[in-house]
Structure formats: structure tokens, C-alpha cells
């Protein structure tokens, strides 16, 4: 009640339209996990599988959404989970951050390259640090591409598409 004895009616809460739009958009997104039933359908052109390994949830989601129209996507949030999913799903390509908790991207890649089935899997590394020496070392030893954050969705798509096309052209 107010000081003059009138009862104060609470105003309708304001709807945060950006949050609402985001929730609606999420409901319309393609699945971020591989659909076994889709790839099992006879005659269906199955999309290549891309593993996204990124510890920042927003960046992970951005990458996954950027690629989801053209590829099946599975995600991991650290190098340990990424390594396990790479072994379980044998993706066509891996997009991975370098700096992550538990197991870094560099450590994950070293383990991936010890596995014959993942030896030829293209890897795109992401980093907010533009460490030229680390970048060159990783490109020489284990990765096929390196993107410095921030990057555009189009830049990522072109690089993923090109690496998958190269891999497909080398397959028997």
C-alpha cells in the first residue's frame, strides 16, 4: 500500500524481447548432435560430421550454429571430452580451441595424431592469442589451419568447406 492508503498494483513485468527472440531461435535450430536415424535413411545424402571442441559455451554455440546448416555437429567443452568424442564418432573435421581446461587443444591433438583412424582428420585451431611461433609449430606438426579469434562465420565456413573437400578428394 502507498502512503495515501491506495493499494499499488504491480506493473506488468517488461518482456526482454532479445531473450525471447534468442529462445525462439534456439527452438528452430537444427540438432547439434549427429542424428543416427538421418544417416541411416536409404538414399539420403548424409552430411559430413564436424566436431567442435571449445570451452566457452557462447563460442561453442556460435561455431556449432554457423556450421549446422551444412554439417552434422557434435560438441565438446574441453580436450578430454573432445578426444573421446573424436574416437567415438571419427569426424570428418575437428574445430578446436587451443586454451581449454583439463586437456588443452594442443594436448588433445597430440593424442589424436597417435590414433591411426584420426591421423588424417583435418583440424582447424582457434585461438585468441596470435602467438606466431605456436601457430607455425602447430601448422607444421599437426593442424591444417589456424584462425585467430574473433573471426567471421563466413571465414570459418569457407575454411571448413575447403578442408573437407581436400580430404574427400584424397580418399580412395
Task: Tell me what you see in this structure.
The chain has a five-stranded parallel β-sheet, with helices on both faces. Mean pLDDT is 80; it is low at 8-44. The chain starts with 16 loop residues before the first helix and ends with a helix. It has seven helices and five strands; from the N terminus they run H-H-E-H-E-H-E-H-E-H-E-H. 44% of the residues lie in helices and 14% in strands. It is α/β, with parallel strands linked by helices. Helix 3 crosses helix 7 (153-170) and helix 4 (79-89) runs parallel beside helix 5 (105-112).
Record keyword descriptors for this entry:
7 helices; alpha/beta; globular; five-stranded parallel sheet; 14% strand
The general outline is globular
Mean pLDDT: 80
Order of helices and strands: HHEHEHEHEHEH
Spatial order of the strands in the main sheet?
2-1-3-4-5
Please report the number of helical segments. Answer: 7
Give the biggest beta sheet. 5 strands, parallel
Global Rg: 21 Å
Structural class: alpha/beta
Percentage of residues in helical conformation: 40-55%
Low-confidence stretches: 8-44
CA-CA gap between termini: 79 Å
How much beta, percentage-wise?
5-15%
Amino acid at each position: 500500500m502507498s502512503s495515501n492508503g491506495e493499494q499499488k498494483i504491480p506493473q506488468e513485468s517488461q518482456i526482454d524481447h532479445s531473450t525471447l527472440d534468442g529462445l525462439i531461435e534456439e527452438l528452430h535450430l537444427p540438432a547439434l548432435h549427429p542424428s543416427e536415424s538421418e544417416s541411416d535413411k536409404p538414399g539420403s545424402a548424409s552430411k559430413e560430421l564436424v566436431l567442435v571442441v571449445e570451452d566457452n559455451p557462447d563460442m561453442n554455440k556460435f561455431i556449432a550454429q554457423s556450421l549446422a546448416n551444412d554439417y552434422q555437429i557434435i560438441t565438446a567443452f574441453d580436450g578430454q571430452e573432445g578426444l573421446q568424442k573424436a574416437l567415438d564418432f571419427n569426424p570428418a573435421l575437428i574445430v578446436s580451441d587451443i586454451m581449454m581446461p583439463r586437456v588443452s587443444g594442443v594436448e588433445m591433438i597430440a593424442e589424436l595424431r597417435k590414433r591411426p583412424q584420426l591421423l588424417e582428420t583435418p583440424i582447424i585451431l582457434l585461438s585468441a592469442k596470435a602467438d606466431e611461433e605456436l601457430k607455425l609449430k602447430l601448422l607444421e606438426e599437426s593442424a591444417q589451419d589456424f584462425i585467430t579469434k574473433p573471426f567471421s562465420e563466413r571465414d570459418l565456413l569457407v575454411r571448413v568447406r575447403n578442408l573437407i573437400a581436400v580430404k574427400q578428394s584424397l580418399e580412395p
